[in-house]
Write a structure and sequence with these properties.
Blueprint: E1 2-6, H1 16-30, E2 34-38, E3 45-48, E4 51-57, H2 61-71, E5 75-78, H3 83-94, E6 100-103, H4 107-115, H5 119-129, E7 135-138, H6 141-149, E8 157-159, E9 180-184, H7 193-197, E10 204-208, H8 214-220, E11 224-228, H9 232-241, E12 244-247, H10 256-263, E13 268-270, H11 276-279, E14 286-288, H12 292-299, H13 304-309, H14 316-325
Helix pairs in contact: 1-14, 2-3, 4-5
Length: about 325
Amino acid sequence: MKILIISDLTSKQINGVVTTFQNTIKELKSRDYEVNEINADMFRSLPCPGYREIRLSSVTPKIIGQHIENFNPDYIHIATEGPIGLAARSYLRSIGDKWSSSFHTKFAEFVEAKIGFGANLIWKFLKWAYRDDAFILTTTSSMRDELVSHGFNRERIRTWSRGVDPDIFVPNPFGQKDLIFLNVGRVSVEKGLEDFYKLNLPGHKIQVGEGPELEKYKKKYPDVEFVGAKRGKELAAYYRNASVMVFPSRADTFGVVIIESMRCGTPVAAYPVTGPIDIIQNGKNGFMSENLSDAIDECLKIDRKKVLFNSNQYNWKDATDKFVKALIRRK
């Protein structure tokens, strides 16, 4: 079986969407599927204003169509709604093909946080962009409900969870020595990081990640240690050594960093919003509250062995099973 995954992503990005597809493709290949990609690494592109990690590629439906026919896949999955994703949809629509897709990013909320308006317009665009997708995979049941509330067809939406590499993300066998409060993610306004930085906590704050607000926040919050982007075992070490992973975002559809932290035995403090509300069980693997300080205090009381136990449900095998089940033959 030949599967083609089309996206506006680049291999240089570090985010949950890239992590998801890297691991999904690895799992698919282990099952002897032939997998190919069309992505932003293949075309000339410019950085998206305000979100430089996203590349806006210069492509046409005809160009994307040539790449599709050269590979001649049995199944096509479109991962994004940028220029490449839109061009692919246009080409496939013109020849009567079918495809599946996935919804990963609350882009409307990002725009609203960045410029103060525009969310309603972006949601209308997203509904239009996904209008002909046979199946749309999204992260959780609450995210499915949110899509439906914006006019998406419930019958076409499937939930698709995420996984964690158990060989990389492992707990600290020596226990915690110092109070360390951690956030892992893009350093940008929509992540709500200042809610974390402003807290008066009895320990050290660490931020892992890069983004457009990095230099600004470094100057504004000198008590926070900004260590840049980390991957693999180096990233896992930060999770293991943290007392609590603080996740102040209200604009994520899931939060792969949440389950990575849990797999290292580190509880997660968050707001009760889409993403955390589908993953965190208060008192078991973290705590949610509109008062972030209270959530952190409750996390410090949780047995880390209990956190680890409640993370075992997130694995790439089960996640990939759901991905395969949502694929649809082209014609």
